[in-house]
Specification:
284 residues; alpha/beta; Rossmann fold; Pantoate--beta-alanine Ligase, Chain: A,domain 2; 2 domains; 6-stranded parallel sheet; 3-stranded antiparallel sheet
Length: 284
């Protein structure tokens, strides 16, 4: 397994790699959710690349960039065990030469990034769109693998890849959960033991409303209210940022569920912000 820090070297290696080539972009501190992306990439491609890059441009000024968990040795050991061919682990100055204060080029998707995560994390999706466009341009994969847990991010990345003709098929992979239902996230390590025991209430509340939908409920407000009631009953939740029933392609709010939709929630628990979602109807 090759570990590469240089954009120039990574591009050269990928240009000569056996095809098809699959890429799993990550910010490191890998867990079984990341591993599921890598396994699928391994199943579907002759060459597998993984990027490890904690992207500073998708963190807000009051967010956890400086404390985001990192363990490169552990990550590389895990990836070697999954038979990954190449790991791209650039430094921030390699991806943003000259420093962020001098960076002037951004990829921004209008329309689907102003609400939900975009409302609570201004600038987040500009950073996501920019770094993903750079990674896809550097690696030029045939397929790139992303988890459904970050549903709005997935929609944004699909739009970036399509609108900029980046050539990669964006593959959506199922959310991987702990045994009690909590969606896996690198930030879960910051939950206290008490918060960790309470955190599955997010998935439980979403599943309860999902069952209402299966039984015929189509009113978006009733579905949202059912989730809110469950979340507001958990005293360790400091705030519910949003509960939404949204179109999976545009992320616009849905008042009546007439086709495949997403039920999404974001809450703050202790020092951690947790997001999750479930499907209402089948998605592609």
């Amino acid at each position: 397994m090759r570990v590469i820090e240089s954009i120039c070297e990574m591009r050269e290696v990928c240009q000569s790699a056996r095809r098809p080539l699959g890429l799993a972009p990550t910010m490191g501190y890998l867990h079984d959710g990341h591993r599921s992306l890598v396994k699928r990439a391994r199943d579907e491609n002759a060459t597998v690349a993984v990027s490890i890059f904690v992207n500073p441009t998708q963190f807000g000024p009051r967010e956890d960039y400086s404390t985001y968990p990192q363990d490169m040795d552990r990550d590389l050991s895990l990836l070697e065990g999954e038979n990954v061919d190449v790991v791209f682990a650039p430094r921030a100055e390699e991806m943003y030469p000259g420093g962020l204060e001098r960076w002037r080029t951004w990829v921004e998707v209008m329309g689907m990034t102003e609400r939900l995560e975009g409302e609570f994390r201004p600038g987040h999706f500009r950073g996501v769109g920019t770094v993903v466009a750079k990674l896809l341009n550097i690696v030029r994969p045939d397929r790139a693998y992303f988890g459904r847990k970050d549903a709005q991010q997935l929609a944004v990345i699909r739009r970036v890849a399509r609108d900029l003709d980046l050539g990669a098929d964006i593959v959506a992979c199922p959310t991987v959960r702990e045994r009690d239902g909590l969606a896996m996230s690198s930030r879960n390590v910051f939950l206290t033991p008490e918060e960790r025991r309470a955190a599955p209430v997010i998935y439980y509340s979403l599943r309860k409303a999902q069952e209402m939908h299966r039984q015929g409920e189509r009113d978006g407000e009733r579905l949202r209210s059912a989730v809110c009631r469950e979340l507001e009953g958990e005293p360790l939740i400091k705030a519910v940022d949003y509960v939404s029933v949204a179109d999976p392609g545009t992320m616009e709010e849905v008042s009546t569920v007439e086709g495949p939709s997403l039920l999404l929630a974001a809450v703050r628990m202790g020092r951690v912000r947790l997001i999750d979602n479930v499907e209402l109807g089948g998605l592609t």
